[in-house]
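> example.struct
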């Protein structure tokens, strides 16, 4: 006999351990939302006073809704906090917004106006930068496999730095720059053997991954030399290369500052050794991005000032220990600037509830056998095409009923998309009011980074537009695709 148990008001045994039943399903957990998002007097989710229903009526769903003032505030907070922490060390910090997280011309303008610079990772991202009219000297180019065309484009634009990823590429950049009769400003991307995850970091001998030049010795044909040192030696000998310094990026969605600090120390020690050995000065050190944000109530991001101070302390003490002047420090935050500025607005469609055997679901082991629990599937009008992160990285998100408040009991729900794929999950586990119905609007916070940027046309869904809200008005900064856009590149029968 299979018995049935209702768990509407208590925690569901199907829920992961970290997910608590919210005391108030209508409340917004602040760290996950942009500053301008609130519930209005009618109970609707509103951004800068514009209710979700109005956004839906004007722009349709799914829709990325971005708070421009919040973006600017987060950008400024990184710049100001790092400038303050490093003022007496190297006169401040250059903050490169990592455009891979979300890029369009409007965002380039905001970045520039707030005193930041721009980190790009392809010719396409450079094209956006050029279209926005940003000074090339304030732009960096990344990538482990830059084409000659991309390198030429960077040199055409007078880029402030090309971050070189390998010995092969160093040769290529040197050759192209020399053929043009000039020099490329280059940083070398090193793998410091520090790999950071969300809650911890591990230090390994060297990293088994495609990016960067290894700092471990004996990894190249020249016995005793690390790839990193070989690159420094080569860079100083090439007439086409102006070697600015070193770069590292240890990972993404990291909360603890320890990993950044350890990487900074390792790179400074290496920089000092290379300066002495090759009688050179490397005036710059880029410590990458990777600062974490809150996707769910259990994520605890640190304020920019706290990270800045922790990193500054290590840079200060390491430079003192080495007896060197600190290079000018730069960082490359993407997610921590744009991630929480944006929520995705969806309309609810099909609903169904399945009953799941707790034993088979991976839920608490001590549940009685043959007892099933309800899990409700809430389908929305987008999915893995506008947010691939749950599928790609098992990323957790949260969701809230946006079009109204509800006093109904919490029900463990799974928000899914409309794609032909059972893994098409937007929010794996969330408590939503049990009266959520077709036509309701749901909002998923924290979708500013790597969602629109990773979006696809799977199943010929049109990619959503991005609306920026500022001073109580909303404007499209990227329009959504139309059916015509989808058919445009089809060359016909
Ligand atoms: N600098 C470099 C060299 C990077 O490779 C990255 C990210 C960043 C800066 C910016 O990292 P952020 O501050 O945004 O964490 N698609 C994945 C993340 C990939 C990150 C790639 N590199 C995700 O959605 O989690």
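> example.seq
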């Amino acid at each position: 006999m299979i018995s049935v148990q209702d768990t509407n008001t208590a925690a569901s045994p199907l829920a992961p351990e970290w997910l608590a039943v919210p005391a108030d399903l209508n409340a917004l957990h602040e760290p996950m939302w942009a500053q301008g998002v609130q519930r209005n007097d009618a109970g609707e989710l509103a951004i800068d006073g514009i209710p979700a229903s109005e956004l839906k009526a004007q722009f349709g769903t799914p829709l990325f809704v971005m708070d421009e003032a919040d973006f600017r505030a987060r950008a400024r907070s990184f710049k100001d906090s790092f400038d303050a922490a490093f003022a007496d060390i190297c006169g401040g910090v250059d903050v490169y917004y990592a455009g891979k997280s979300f890029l369009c011309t409007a965002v380039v303008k905001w970045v520039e106006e707030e005193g930041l610079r721009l980190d790009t990772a392809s010719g396409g991202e450079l094209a956006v930068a050029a279209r926005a009219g940003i000074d090339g000297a304030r732009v960096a180019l990344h990538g482990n496999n830059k084409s000659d065309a991309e390198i030429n484009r960077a040199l055409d634009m007078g880029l402030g730095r090309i971050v070189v990823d390998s010995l092969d590429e160093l040769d290529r950049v040197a050759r192209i720059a020399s053929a043009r009769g000039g020099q490329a400003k280059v940083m070398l991307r090193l793998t410091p053997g520090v790999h950071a995850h969300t809650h911890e970091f591990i230090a390994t001998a060297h990293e088994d991954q495609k990016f960067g030049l290894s700092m471990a010795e004996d990894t190249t044909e020249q016995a005793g030399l690390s790839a990193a040192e070989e690159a420094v030696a080569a860079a100083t000998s090439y007439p086409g290369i102006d070697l600015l310094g070193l770069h590292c990026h240890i990972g993404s969605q990291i909360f603890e500052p320890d990993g950044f600090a350890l990487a900074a120390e390792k790179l400074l020690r290496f920089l000092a050794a290379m300066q002495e050995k090759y009688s050179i000065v490397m005036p710059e050190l880029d410590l990458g991005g990777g600062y974490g944000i809150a996707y769910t109530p259990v994520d605890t991001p640190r304020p920019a000032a706290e990270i800045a101070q922790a990193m500054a302390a290590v840079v200060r003490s390491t430079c003192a220990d080495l007896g060197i002047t600190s290079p000018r420090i730069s960082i490359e935050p993407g997610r921590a600037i744009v991630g929480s500025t944006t929520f995705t607005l969806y309309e609810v469609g099909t609903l169904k509830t399945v009953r799941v055997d707790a034993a088979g679901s991976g839920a608490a082991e001590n549940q009685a056998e043959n007892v099933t629990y309800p899990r409700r599937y809430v389908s929305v009008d987008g999915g893995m095409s506008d947010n691939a992160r749950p599928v790609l990285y098992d990323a957790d998100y949260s969701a809230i009923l946006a079009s109204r408040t509800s006093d109904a009991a919490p029900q463990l729900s799974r928000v899914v998309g409309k794609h032909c794929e059972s893994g098409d999950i937007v929010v794996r586990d969330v408590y939503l009011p049990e009266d959520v119905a077709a036509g309701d609007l749901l909002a998923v916070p924290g979708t500013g980074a790597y969602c629109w940027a990773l979006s696809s046309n799977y199943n010929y869904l049109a990619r959503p537009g991005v609306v920026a809200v500022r001073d109580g008005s909303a404007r499209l900064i990227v329009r959504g695709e139309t059916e015509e856009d989808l058919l445009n590149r089809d060359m016909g029968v």
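> remarks
The two ends are 58 Å apart (CA to CA).
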